């Protein structure tokens, strides 16, 4: 078997395992196919996900089901206005040794898990929200000058209610940028509602079984990074990101009019990684421009900060991204 044959077999196994994991989650979660795809892409890419939707749409159940299907350590934190950073990370406590000596010992908080559900994250104060920053980026936390590494894989799934609801705090921009993608959970269709009733009001309640390990997720993540991307396709991705910056010469007209701040380099990294995984799922061994366009909205929507005019006119980040996709030429940076 040649190297190419080995890689092809590995990618076939990648798609098989992806479909297996998605199917297991779908035993419990009805519909929401795009949400599940993007959530699993984020997981494999090593990123974190922000789920937004009104209460009752199954956001928490989706995350819990994912943890069950992965056979990983799972913790849930219910964010409330009185939640403190130490409630997440842990704290130093005084312990007494058998010989009577007293000293400090670090007692780990619920942050130490493979899959962390930060439920209704925008109901906590910005101080508590920011406690996740180091953990999400560095996969470690520092307490009293000592750094504690988190177990791999480490995956944060945060849910939030729309900002116009009472008792919510907007997430800081630095916090938002650490999420690989932001997914909007929509209301189920009529047929999905019928299926939900069948599954929740009858005597049989489906549950997801563990079908994959954390080690396999890490293997899939490493494999995805091997997918090549042509230089012209990569420049197209760069052009899409710089088009979100109102001060850049390649900025789209909608960006100049409605955007205050655009996506960061971290957004570009997420766009490329997501496109590589999307290419594998579409049975291709290279990244196409369509992969970038497919990932642009979930990866960039939370990284665009609209100005006052955009907010006043009711423009959404999705509207701006759609115009950017339409306006950016495939050879925008061909001469760069």
UniProtKB/TrEMBL annotation:
NAD in keyword set: no
Domain AAA+ ATPase, chain residue ranges per copy: 45-189
InterPro entries xrefs: AAA+_ATPase (IPR003593), ATPase_AAA-3 (IPR011703), CbbQ/NirQ/NorQ/GpvN (IPR050764), ChlI/MoxR_AAA_lid (IPR041628), P-loop_NTPase (IPR027417)
SMART domains tied to this protein: AAA
GO molecular function, one term: DNA helicase activity
Entry's EC annotation: 3.6.4.12
Keyword set, alphabetical order: ATP-binding, Helicase, Hydrolase, Nucleotide-binding
Similarity comment text for this entry: Belongs to the MoxR family.
Protein name stated in the entry: Holliday junction ATP-dependent DNA helicase RuvB
Organism per entry: Allorhodopirellula solitaria
Source lineage: Bacteria, Pseudomonadati, Planctomycetota, Planctomycetia, Pirellulales
């Amino acid at each position: 078997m040649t190297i190419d044959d080995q890689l092809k077999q590995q990618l076939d196994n990648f798609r098989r395992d992806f479909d297996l994991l998605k199917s297991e989650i779908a035993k419990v979660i009805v519909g929401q196919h795009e949400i599940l795809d993007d959530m699993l892409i984020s997981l494999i890419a090593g990123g974190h996900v922000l789920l937004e939707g009104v209460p009752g749409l199954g956001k928490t159940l989706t995350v819990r089901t994912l943890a069950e299907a992965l056979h990983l350590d799972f913790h849930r934190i219910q964010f409330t206005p009185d939640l403190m950073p130490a409630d997440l990370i842990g704290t130093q406590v005084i312990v007494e040794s058998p010989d009577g000596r007293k000293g400090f010992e670090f007692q780990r908080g619920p942050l130490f898990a493979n899959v962390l559900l930060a439920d209704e994250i925008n109901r906590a104060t910005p101080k508590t929200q920011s406690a996740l920053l180091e953990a999400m980026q560095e996969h470690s936390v520092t307490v009293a000058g000592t750094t504690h590494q988190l177990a791999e894989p480490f995956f944060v799934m945060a849910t939030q209610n729309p900002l116009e609801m009472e008792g919510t705090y907007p997430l800081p921009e630095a916090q938002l940028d650490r999420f690989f993608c932001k997914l909007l959970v929509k209301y189920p269709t009529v047929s999905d509602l019928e299926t939900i009733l069948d599954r929740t009001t009858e005597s049989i309640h489906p549950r997801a079984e563990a079908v994959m390990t954390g080690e396999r997720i890490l293997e899939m993540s490493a494999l995805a990074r091997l997918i090549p991307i042509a230089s012209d396709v990569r420049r197209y991705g760069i052009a899409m990101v710089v088009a979100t910056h109102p001060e850049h010469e390649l900025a789209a007209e909608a960006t100049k009019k409605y955007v205050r701040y655009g996506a960061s380099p971290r957004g570009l990294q997420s766009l490329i990684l997501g496109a590589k995984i999307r290419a594998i799922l579409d049975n291709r061994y290279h990244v196409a421009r369509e992969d970038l366009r497919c990932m642009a909205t979930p990866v960039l929507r939370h990284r665009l900060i609209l100005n006052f005019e955009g907010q006043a006119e009711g423009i959404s980040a999705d509207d701006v991204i759609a115009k950017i996709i339409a306006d950016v030429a495939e050879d925008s940076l061909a001469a760069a």
